[in-house]
Design goal:
With 494 residues, this protein is an all-alpha fold. It has 21 helices and no strands.
């Protein structure tokens, strides 16, 4: 099998109809006389510039709020779809007053509903860091505006890190990072909240795993989980794939790194500010059915009064059932799935079954989607559905604030668009797993270019096995069912 770094870089304009059409803006698809991609302008440089442009456009979209909408009533920030949590929480969570998160209780006059910061500790530290560089109310009229700008600068670093990591995770497919850099929903949601911190750490973890560094990957997963809970889900696919490929030692190192990094960040707060540290977890459990979930549609459309405990139980049950199905898929598919495919599916499952879906949660999926299903048509269909939801929630809130907006029925349609768009991409990824000839990443005979120690490894255990599969390169050469790297499959069909 050809080493992934030795393969020429895949040019999407030669494989993807939408990419080929879009390339006409820049001179058309690359021809046979095109020079090597790394000669003068390597892909990573172009993708970083594209990410800068996308991020700046997202900041421009927030300008109506940055000028006055965040500070002069609720209607403007909803009708202009430029809402952000960042300037509001600067005051509402005590950063403007110099309170130390988790260790100091938020006064009731500052926040009547929240006694402690309801974010994981690494995100709280990020928020606190930004507050150190924000001028106080005695120096400027609207410090919340400056707090948003400082955070935007820090989040831009995270955005660039995400683009670079995705570009380099699958060495012969660097242009897949352009999907992230040009994602419309990325621009719209990047500065709503602090999710990009966890997304950047998760993308870096996948890069480290692809480079055969499981311990570093584990440390980054642990740090990402200390910033947001969802990166913990990646350990499930890693366990299943390492079990199938008999690479459990690598998984153990990753698990140890994750536990150690998470504990190193959290233990000082667990021991010194237990009540404040626990607020994120208790808030997540006590939070009622909220925006963006199918649970909200059910609660609006039926007479069933959903208790918080009941929704938690049902959501957990659905999540566990979905994880069981993914385990069967991972261990029973004819060919071992790629890590990015299972990572995308498990995070999408969490989003689909959760009792709340905030618009910025799409950021969790964008890098995973670019690695799992790098097809522009499907990616843009999904992104279009997310843009519909992004507009739908703000106009629904505008209606509730007394402005002209979207009634509940219209908002329900926006939620359905989000759910169907995500399910559409999930179905395509599952099809790619079950029928690897449709997987564009494997078109050139690759196994799992982002799989690290899994790439090219023969199967040691599968649910389909009737006899112990053959091992090693010889098995892959003759297409034995247990092999993970058969000959190049036929071209992907649209």
């Amino acid at each position: 099998m050809v080493h992934p770094d030795a393969r020429p870089a895949v040019r999407p304009s030669q494989q993807d109809e939408v990419a080929a059409a879009g390339s006409e803006l820049l001179g058309g698809p690359a021809g046979r006389r095109a020079g090597p991609s790394g000669h003068r302008w390597p892909p990573v440089r172009i993708i970083v510039l594209a990410m800068l442009g996308t991020f700046v456009l997202g900041m421009v979209q927030k300008l109506p709020c940055a000028r006055r909408g965040w500070f002069e009533g609720a209607a403007t920030q909803y009708t202009h779809a430029c809402y952000s949590d960042i300037p509001h929480l600067y005051t509402a969570r005590g950063f403007a007053d110099g309170l130390i998160p988790y260790f100091q209780r938020i006064p009731e006059e500052t926040s009547a509903t929240m006694e402690f910061l309801e974010y994981p500790v690494l995100t709280g530290m990020f928020m606190e860091l930004a507050s150190w560089f924000t001028p106080s109310a005695g120096l400027v009229d609207r410090p919340g505006q400056y707090y948003w700008l400082v955070n935007a600068g820090l989040l831009l670093i995270c955005a660039i890190a995400i683009a670079v990591c995705v570009t380099r995770t699958q060495p012969h497919r660097p242009w897949d990072g352009l999907l992230v850099a040009l994602a419309p929903a990325f621009a719209l949601t990047a500065t709503i909240n602090w999710d990009l911190l966890a997304v950047a750490l998760t993308a870096a973890a996948l890069l480290m795993w692809s480079r055969g560094r499981p311990l570093a990957a584990g440390v980054l997963i642990g740090l990402a989980t200390a910033a947001k809970l969802y990166p913990l889900l990646l350990l499930g696919p890693l366990l299943l794939l390492c079990w199938r490929a008999a690479r459990l030692r690598a998984f153990t190192r990753t698990l140890g790194g994750a536990v150690g990094a998470w504990a190193a960040v959290n233990l000082p707060f667990i021991l010194g500010a237990t009540e404040g540290w626990a607020k994120f977890y208790t808030f997540s459990q006590e939070r009622p059915v909220d925006f963006g979930s199918f649970w909200l549609i059910l609660s609006h459309r039926t007479d069933w009064q959903w208790e918080v405990e009941s929704v938690n139980d049902w959501a957990t049950l659905l999540m566990l059932a979905g994880c069981g199905a993914l385990a069967v898929l991972a261990l029973g598919a004819r060919r071992r799935p790629r890590l990015a495919q299972l990572a995308f599916l498990v995070v999408a499952l969490f989003i689909l079954t959760n009792k709340v879906y905030s618009p910025q949660y799409v950021l969790w999926l964008i890098p995973l989607a670019a690695l799992a299903r790098p097809r522009w048509r499907d990616f843009l269909i999904w992104q279009g559905c997310e843009v519909v939801y992004f507009l739908g929630i703000w106009f629904y809130l505008a209606e509730n604030a007394g402005a002209s907006g979207l009634p509940p029925g219209g908002y329900h349609l926006a939620i359905v668009a989000h759910l169907l768009g995500t399910l559409y991409l999930c179905v395509l990824v599952v099809r790619d797993v079950l029928r690897p000839e449709h997987d564009i990443v494997r078109r050139d005979g690759s196994d799992d270019p982002g799989g690290g120690v899994l790439d090219g490894a023969a199967d040691a255990f599968t649910l389909r096995r009737l006899r112990r599969p053959a091992r090693g390169p010889a098995a892959a050469a003759v297409g034995v069912p247990g092999a993970s790297a058969p000959a190049a499959p036929p071209a992907d069909r649209p």
